[in-house]
Request: fold
Amino acid sequence: MTFYSLTKDIRVKLTLKINNEILADIKKGNSRNIHRHFSNEDTYIRKVAYIAIGKIYKEFKVHHRLLLKIINSLFEDKNPKVRQSVINAAGEIAMQDFETVEKLFDAGLFDDHHSVRNAVIGSMKKAGEKNPKPILKFAKKYLSHPDNEIRREICHGIELRGRTHPEDILPLLKKLQHDKTSRVRNTLIHVLGQIAYKKGCLETVIADLKNWENKELVIEAIDEIIDVHYRYRTFAILSQDEAKKYIEAHF
Reply:
């Protein structure tokens, strides 16, 4: 049975059981239960497990050394689900303390399996929202990396911070404006659209785009921004028509 096929009461009990098993593993310095949960076929069981790692890291400083030793060791596992869960656990820790898991982020970017690389993007997003300074510093290291997939992943990874503080990520996005790889370019345009529809963000994005050199990309980005205001009309602070009028008046 999958996690969400269970009743709410049973899910609560199972979550507590997983948390207790993981804490017991860490106290003993082994990873038997952690590995079992990290390799589970059910995404949500794995999620309960890696969230538990983050909670334990936050609540039990005395166990930091053993916990970090265990998850670093598990990253060597052949099963990509285990490595993916390790990166997601690193993301939970990075919301409080990025430096202790930075090497896992580095390694995850170059993993052979796409699910592990995608976990880095997700972990950058959630950590960047809560603990932006080291995440943005990490992102800067890879903006000029020769591997276009690395540049794309980094671009995508800083998106969430931009939805509330676009001024933090726009200088980084600007560095990618002349990237000739279509996947990087498309992700850049996507991210510009995603950070422009929240309260106060359109004004910041449009003001910044005025100073970009690649006018062709800027026009594509503006088209995406206008389209996003329709696609996300339930969540956008402005209607599509209001966004169009603002852009016409200020760009």
In short: The longest helix spans residues 8-28. The mean pLDDT is 95.
